[in-house]
Amino acid sequence: MAMTALPLAYLFCTFVWYAYQSRLSEVREEMAERGPLVAKVLADSSEFSLVSRRYDDLKLTINGLLRADPSIYRIEVLDAQRRELVHAAARAGGVEPQPGYYEAPVLKRLMWVAMLGPDGKPYRKDGPSGASGMTVETMGYVRVTMSPSALLLKQTRRFYVELLVGSIGLLACVLLAWQLAKGLNASLYASMQALREADAEKRRLIRKVNTAVEDERQSIALEIHDELNATLIAARLEAQRIADLSAEGEVRDKAQSIIKLTLGLYNSGRQLVRRLRPEVLDMLGLDGAVEEMVRHYDNARSGCRFDLQARGDFSKMESSIAISAYRIVQEALSNVVKHARATHAEVTLALEEGELRMQIRDNGGGFDPAQASSGIGLVGMRERVYAFNGRITVETGLAAGTCIHIVMPIR
């Protein structure tokens, strides 16, 4: 609505300002044109009245002109010495004079005619010596003071009509913009609602996928534990029985080799079971499982020291959230070992205000977020966090280490 209405409002204000200024300009131009013309016409028509001193007739003419033209405020007739002879002013109330006046001279034109005397010689009666043809004398002045009030009133009426037409157009445009904005808002709201529903469906799907993956891992871990490891134990016991029944020689040595091989396979199977489904997570909770993981990485002699800080009671945490948090920490520590080249890493777990807050910080080389693309591990961490409506923030920089902040609601 604002994107549509603001340009229209700006155009409307510009139109009003231009219309108002143009009206003032037209009034000024008309006054500048009419004032000198009135003064000139009145001066030309006042010659006979001044010569014959018929000032009453001149005043009647001036009053008629004032009544006929409301734009004239005052008319003054002066003699040659600029002494006032006749004056008249407009009687209408609310009329304001224009600064200054327009002045035109009243000219007396004399034509000298040669006469014949009794002696037959030409002469000029009452004519000055050396006068010939026509002479022009200034016998007075006419001053006209104009008033823009009447013209402004006329132009103001026109301006109000234009303003009314412009306001109706603006109102129509605003109503149209409101209808368009209403339709766009409804469409945008529907799109956002569909996006929210799609995002919620995506989160539910991710949770289902993660749950299915964890269930499958648990199933595989149980198969390995119950079937493969049991078979390896049986094979080791049989090999041990063969070794006990055999005398010193090749058969006994082969039996001992089988015992070592089955024992190694059994240990590998148990490690694989712990990776697929950490048993300590069910027994000791999230903090205990992460503590064992941190201890494992700390004892791996990778050149990096790992520490853990945990606050809160993790025993009543939902299993799906606990396993997701465990996998996030597992992926983060794996990245520290593989890529960070760090000498110290710290894991912080806290249950505060109905939220699980995790932080994994290292002093490694870090990376440039603007140039480095997100790897599969970081994408997987984000998806696990978003599946539970959580938030994840990665703070890093070249030679500045990396810090991952995670907040997951548990209610």
TrEMBL record:
<feature type="domain" description="Histidine kinase">
    <location>
        <begin position="327"/>
        <end position="411"/>
    </location>
</feature>
<dbReference type="InterPro" id="IPR005467">
    <property type="entry name" value="His_kinase_dom"/>
</dbReference>
<dbReference type="Pfam" id="PF02518">
    <property type="entry name" value="HATPase_c"/>
</dbReference>
<dbReference type="InterPro" id="IPR011712">
    <property type="entry name" value="Sig_transdc_His_kin_sub3_dim/P"/>
</dbReference>
<dbReference type="Pfam" id="PF07730">
    <property type="entry name" value="HisKA_3"/>
</dbReference>
<dbReference type="GO" id="GO:0000155">
    <property type="term" value="F:phosphorelay sensor kinase activity"/>
</dbReference>
<keyword id="KW-0902">Two-component regulatory system</keyword>
<feature type="transmembrane region" description="Helical">
    <location>
        <begin position="159"/>
        <end position="178"/>
    </location>
</feature>
<dbReference type="GO" id="GO:0016020">
    <property type="term" value="C:membrane"/>
</dbReference>
<keyword id="KW-0812">Transmembrane</keyword>
<keyword id="KW-0418">Kinase</keyword>
<dbReference type="InterPro" id="IPR036890">
    <property type="entry name" value="HATPase_C_sf"/>
</dbReference>
<keyword id="KW-0472">Membrane</keyword>
<dbReference type="InterPro" id="IPR050482">
    <property type="entry name" value="Sensor_HK_TwoCompSys"/>
</dbReference>
<keyword id="KW-1133">Transmembrane helix</keyword>
<protein>
    <submittedName>
        <fullName>Sensor histidine kinase</fullName>
    </submittedName>
</protein>
<keyword id="KW-0808">Transferase</keyword>
<dbReference type="InterPro" id="IPR003594">
    <property type="entry name" value="HATPase_dom"/>
</dbReference>
<dbReference type="GO" id="GO:0046983">
    <property type="term" value="F:protein dimerization activity"/>
</dbReference>
